[in-house]
């Protein structure tokens, strides 16, 4: 079971469907960008370099994978690494035009605190671009997620199946009218429920 969970988590984050979602969402980033849970830089290929002036890559120090150095050097972007967790950013208010989060709010320990930080660092009119798996809109699937989550979380590096990403964003002051809730094709719905789109600070 642990091997299955790890392989399934990897397919959600790195599979073809997830890559298409990353391309669709991340390519909308512009101006000064803050990306949460940068990791190994999977999103670098999806940025429109003509539209991005600077990228702040946020990640806990232990989570910056070694390949990031080579990817950053060839990215054609001005990138500054911020080696902290996203709940407390050493960035001034309103510095960002765009915040990008792909599969980060499901793993960040205090996701609502990180969302509040995203709202703080966004300028008025800025945008949060989001791709996350999370709580399903179906009540019975959500209940199954709740039951499976402790086992899933323990073997998937702290990732959570059942966080209500859209509801959490609303609680910290985001307009989520452009955030969709969809099921990822080729995945069981308990694993493939996604929240994606554009959120704006109210």
Summarize the model shown.
34% of the residues lie in helices and 27% in strands.
Describe the structure.
The longest helix has 17 residues, at 139-155. The chain has 202 residues and is α/β, with parallel strands linked by helices. The protein is 34% helix and 27% strand. The chain has a 7-stranded mixed sheet. 44% of the residues are buried. α1 (2-14) packs parallel to α2. α4 (111-121) links the parallel β4 (96-102) and β5. Mean pLDDT is 88; it is low at 66-74.
Task: Please name the defining characteristics of this protein.
single chain; 202 residues; alpha/beta; Rossmann fold; 7 strands; 34% helix; globular
Q: What is the fold's blueprint, element by element?
A:
Blueprint: H1 2-14, H2 16-26, E1 31-36, E2 52-58, H3 68-73, E3 79-82, E4 96-102, H4 111-121, E5 122-133, H5 139-155, H6 165-171, E6 174-183, H7 189-192, E7 193-201
Parallel strand pairs: 1-2, 1-4, 2-3, 4-5
Antiparallel strand pairs: 5-7, 6-7
Helix pairs in contact: 1-2
**What name does the CATH topology carry?**
Rossmann fold
How big a fraction of the residues is strand? 25-35%
Sheet with the most strands?
7 strands, mixed
Q: How much helical structure, as a percent, in the residues? A: 25-40%
- Write the element-wise H/E pattern from the N-terminal end onward: HHEEHEEHEHHEHE
CATH 4th-level superfamily: Vaccinia Virus protein VP39
